[in-house]
Amino acid sequence: YLNYLNNINVDAVIVQDLGVIRYIKLNYPTLEVHASTQLNVFNKEGAALLKKLGVTRVVLARETSLDVLKEINQEDIETEVFIHGALCVSYSGQCLTSENFGGRSGNRGQCAQSCRLPYKMFIDGKEKPLSKTPYLFSPRDLSALPLLSELEKIGIASYKVEGRLKTPEYVAAVSKAYRTVIDKKDTTPFMQSALETLFSRGLSPGFLKGVNHTELVE
Q: What is the pLDDT of residue 82?
C-alpha cells in the first residue's frame, strides 16, 4: 500500500507507528511523513524525536497547551493542532473504559463513549443527588475560536477540525466559521454563538489554556 501511495505522489502519509515511520524513511525517502495524533505527542521532547526520525509535521495531542505549543514550535517541525470538536476525558484515544466495559478499543477508533453516559455518585454507600449534572465525565467540546490570534502568533502550520462521523453540513459550517475569523471577515463572538447553535455540549478552550478540570466538564 505504501508503494502505491508513493507511486501516485500523495502529499504525505499520516502514521502512528514508529516502526512504520522508520520503514518509510528507509524505503521511500522522498515520501513525506506526518505523525498522527494517536502518537500522543504533547511536549518538545516528543517533537524533537520525531524530527530526528524524519517526520516533517506532527499532529499534536489535544492535551497540548498554548505554552507548550510555543516550545514545540522552536523544534523546527511543522505543527498541526485540533481547534474544534470532541475532547476525550482521558489522553486522546488512550482511555480503557470502553475496552473494559464492552471490548471496544478507543485507540482503534471503536470507542463506545462511556464518558458521555450519566452516572450516579455514592459516598460511604449513600447516593448523593446530582441535580442536573449526572454527566460527571463528559467533557465540553473544544472551540479554539477565541484563541486563533494566539495560535497565529505561535506559527501553527495547520488547524484540524473534527469531521469523522459528522455530517458534511457540520464540517462545512465549522470550517467556514474558522475560515471567516482567520480571514478577519467577521467577529469571533458572533461565530462562536453560531457554532454553539450548530452542535455543542458546551464549548471550552479544552487544554489549550492548561489543565482546568472545572472548565473541561460541567
A: 94
The DSSP line for the chain is: -HHHHHHTT-S-EEE--HHHHHHHHHH-TTS-EEE-GGG---SHHHHHHHHHTT--EEE--TT--HHHHHHHGGGS-EEEEEEEE---SSSTT---HHHHHHS--GGGT----GGGS---EEETTEEEP-TT---TT-BPEEE-GGGHHHHHHHT-SEEEE--TTS-HHHHHHHHHHHHHHHTTSS-HHHHHHHHHHHS-S-EE-TTTT---HHHHB-
pTM: 0.85
Q: What is the mean pLDDT of residues 133-153?
A: 90
